[in-house]
Amino acid sequence: MGSVSLKIGDGTARFHRSTLCSSVVRLLMLFSVLVTNLFALYAFTSSPRPHSTTTTTTTTTSTSSLADHVSSILRDIESSERTLYQISRDVSGYPSLDPTSPSLPPELRSFLSRQPLPLGKDSRSGITELASSVSHSCLSPSPDPLRQFMSYRPRAPCPSADHPHLPLKLLSLSCDPLPRRRCLSRSSPPPPHTTANPTKTSDSKNDFSVDDVLSLSPPGAVRIGFDVDAPNADFAAAMAVHNVTVVTSSGGWIHRDGLLTLNISPRRRFPFYDNVFDLVRMVKGLDGRDAMEFFMFDIDRVMRPGGLLWLDTYYCVDGETKTTVTRLVDKFGYKKLKWVVGEKAGLGKGRVYLSAVLRKPVRG
Ligand SMILES: *[C@@H]1O[C@H](CO)[C@@H](O)[C@H](O)[C@H]1NC(C)=O
Question: Where is this region: Disordered (predicted)?
Answer without folding.
Answer: 95-125, 181-210
